[in-house]
Amino acid sequence: VTAHVNGRVITWSLPTIPAQSDNYHFDLVVAVDPLLVSGTLHNEVEIYAPYDEDPGNNSASTDDAVQSSNVDLSVEKWNHHSNPAPGYDFVYLLRYRNDGSTGSGIVTLTDTLPLSATYVSWFPQDPLWNLVSVGSQVVFTRPVIAGDRNGDIYLTLHLSNTVQEGTTLTNVVSIATTNEGSTGNNVYTHTMEAQGPYLDIGVSKDFGYGSTVAGYDVVYYINYMNHSNTPAYGVLITDTLPSNTTFVTSTIQRWQYGDWQQVPFPPASVNSDRVVWDLGTLDVAEESNYGEYGQIYVTLHISSGVSAGTVLTNAVEIASTGASPESDDNPENDSDEAAITVRNAGANLMVLKNGNWQGGPPWQLEYDLQYYNVGTTRIEGFTITDTYPLSTTFDQGDVWWGGPITFTDNYTDNQAIWEVGEGLNAGDSGGGRLVVNVDSSIERGRLLTNVIEIAGTQTEVETADNTYTLVKTTGPDLYVVKAAPSPWVEAGETLTFTLRYGNQAERGEDRTDDSGTVYITDTLPAGMEYVTSTMRWCGGPQCPYVTPNIVGDDLIFDVGPHGDGQWNEIYLTVQVTDTALGGDSFPNQVEIASSNPVSDVEPYTSNNTDTETLTLYDPLFAVGKVYEGDVAGQVVTYTLTVTNTGPEAGTNVLLSDTLPANLTYGGSDGVWTGTAITWSLSVAASGGTATGWFTATLPITDGLTITNDTYYVVSSDQGVSSPMGAAVSFEVQPDKKYVYLPLVMRNYP
Predict the structure, then answer these.
(1) How far apart are CA 397 and CA 434, in angstroms?
(2) What is the 3-state secondary structure (H, E, C) of 584-652?
(3) For a tag site, which of 324, 465, 481, 557 has the least CB within 10 Å?
């Protein structure tokens, strides 16, 4: 916008302002006469457009008292994501402030880049900043920073691929002006280490708005993000539709015309139960986060005839299919789901909320409230009752909807109550916030339960959606998860477990006691031996190797105190004994614990242990035998059976039976080798059987003992054999022959 100055009157010709648009603004900077030491500055502004039906709100004015200069500039900075990787871009966030009560003079902000880092781009939160020069230093200027103001600049740099991982990167930023007295907080030094590339993309899903009724549409929000220190390539989002729904359309938020706009974002593919969007490359955080995250609005139609009470669960996944540097380091946030319940037509309200810790100390809890009319008729007014947790007091809160709104802080019952007179149309949604102060004396290990309720002025078709409970916690919340590459192992195999552990507390002071430590204890089962272990992120000359203290079957790792949100991984390599048999199981347990449980009281302990049970994935063969025939000089028939009780089928199973002494081989369904009979069999898993037979002629010696005790599975494709089968013995029986004579009868006179 170009200013036209005529004395003390400044005029701007504005572009077309769209109907029902959001507010627009621009900054006007004026210089105060240095000879003016007191008085009031009066400023008026007017706006004009032809055919304005309500010119009464087309002017405004302000009066500001002139006072002595009181300027207090400061600057700080931090890396805008995790530590940078050599060969990739990264972003600093520079935050400047004027804590004084008056505006500054011309401001110069100078950023001295780390060695091996070069300038790429910058993005200011407001347009008054100007980029002056680029080199080993990046210099910005602006005409003024008003009193009690702050803001951010995002500075994108590139780190040379010649930098070694672990190299310390030092960055110094300074801010200066002409009319500041004290400059003690005008310089800030930031250090961090270069880190190897890693991938961490994530996705979440929430109900947006709409009528949860058969025959109506609903909207879901899909939020995606890239928390990596490198770009993520070939990113796909896959949405699995619930049964009884169909895809309608999708949009995405884009920065257009100076504001965030909803623009069409068609999927790459759609079928009856799956929708896929191709996001291409997700960059590392850049200007004001743009490029690092986004939000897709997905509209689905609920089929007519779906019964009330049917739960519709909508699942979403994100994946990087391109040449990203590593597999996703945090797969837990690669999927999410949101569920709604189909209700009957009519009036129906629903309420949800989430919350976060703020400040500290003293600490506050800030809750975001979301309320919806998920029915098909308008609600004529409603009341929201938010029962905030014990050990908290009300600080502030708002419900954003039309008036009139009557608020009551019922501190006796810890309730914030909003009575909203404006109605809520079918499918509409609104929001609000509640901030509570947390008692400074609150103990660790507490559960802070918050319950929110919504009620309309008319009878609803369902009230199950009218209440929502959210629990926040105090104290550290240690957790450990053990994962194996497969639930199956082989005898003699070497494998590596992943032990992921951390403190998932959300409050900054809920770190474990710094005077103690945290122990990870992994108990190996019989038949499994420790080989080595490494740690994902570690320090010290032995890195990445970490050595546990071994006490019996326990491997004890000292991983040090843990702050809120801190996590790491140990890669534990073990070997399975080569004498293990198919079907053998190996329950492997891991536990995390503070060395000072009295001070480190946790709200939950169920996540302090985990067990991963592995099963030997091999056949497990056993052989048996029966015989028929034991008469001297006659034929005996042996039938052999191989039974596989293991979880894996056996193929090319070589069964062998050595012909006992004193027998003469007759025939079989196997192969006669001259001394033994062999069979090549396939035996199914989990109780499968296979058989073979052979015949032989017995000797004519009565009472001779025949023993068959050399039969077993010699080998198989799976490398598994069997023990010898139980001996089968019998005595040769005589061949009993009878002579039958005729009986002659005489008749004497």
Answers:
(1) 4
(2) CEEEEEEEEEECCCCCCCCCCCHHHEEEEEEEECCCCEEEEEEEECCECCCEEEEEEEEEECCCCCEEE
(3) 481
**Among 128, 160, 121, which Cα is nearest to 145's?**
128
Task: With CA atoms as reference, report the closest residue to 429 among 469, 369, 356, 387.
Answer: 369
Distance CA 477, CA 453 (A): 28
Residues 55, 86: one domain?
no
* Residues 434 and 356: beta-carbon distance below 8 Å: no
Other C-beta atoms closer than 10 Å to the C-beta of 338 total: 19
Let me know if residue 515 belongs to a domain. yes
Residue 66 has φ and ψ, to the nearest 5°, of -80, 130
pLDDT tens digits along 618-655: 889 999 999 999 999 999 999 999 999 988 899 999 99
Instruction: Return mean pLDDT, the chain.
Output: 92
- Answer yes or no: is 628 within a domain: yes
How many domains does the chain fold into? 6
Last residue of a domain, one of 438, 463, 488: 463
Query: What is the structure's pLDDT at 634?
Result: 96
Q: What is the pLDDT of residue 287?
A: 42
Residues with Cβ within 8 Å of 264's Cβ and at least 6 positions away in sequence, in order, are: 249, 250, 251
User: Same domain for 307 and 327?
Assistant: yes
> Once rounded to an integer, what is the mean pLDDT over residues 381-407?
94
Give the pLDDT of residue 471. Answer: 97
For 491-529, letters b (16+ CB in 10 Å) and e give bebebebebbbbbbbbbeebbbbeebbbbbbbbbbebbe
Is residue 729 within a helix (H) or strand (E), and if so which, with residue range? Answer: strand 728-731
- Give the integer Cα–Cα distance in Å for 449 and 150: 35
At 484, give phi and psi (nearest 5°): -110, 155
Amino acid at 99: D
pTM of the predicted model as reported, rounded to 2 decimal places: 0.73
> Measuring CA to CA, how many Å separate 216 from each of 465, 466, 487?
18, 20, 44
Rounded CA separation 739/585 (Å)? 65
Q: pLDDT tens for residues 676-685?
A: 999 999 999 9
Is residue 83 a contact partner of residue 192, using CB atoms and an 8 Å limit?
A: yes
**CATH value at residue 582:** 2.60.40.1510
* pLDDT of amino acid 286: 46
Is 497 contained in some domain?
Answer: yes
287: which 2 tokens? 């200007």
What's the CA gap between 426 and 309, in Å, rounded? 19
- Closest to 363 (Cα-Cα) out of 193, 206, 509: 509
- Do 640 and 630 touch, CB atoms closer than 8 A? no
Q: Which of 30-39, 529-538, 613-622 has the lowest mean pLDDT?
A: 30-39
> CB-based contacts of 641: which residues, under 8 Å, 6+ apart?
623, 624, 625, 689, 690, 691
- Could you read off the pLDDT of 404-430 as tens digits, one per residue? 999 999 999 999 999 999 999 999 999
Contact 579, 491 (CB under 8 A): yes
Instruction: Tell me whether residue 613 is in a domain.
Output: no
Domain span including residue 61? 3-65
Asked if 317 and 244 sit in the same domain, the reply is yes
Q: Residue 567: what residue type?
A: W
Tell me which of 472 and 226 has the higher pLDDT: 472
DSSP one-letter code for 725: P
Rounded (to 5) percent helix, strand, coil in the chain: 0, 55, 45
Helix (H) or strand (E) holding 237: strand 232-240
Residues 6+ apart with CB under 8 A from 341: 212, 309, 310, 311, 312, 462, 464, 465
364 band by pLDDT with thresholds 50, 70 and 90: very high
Neighbours of 58 (CB within 10 A): 12
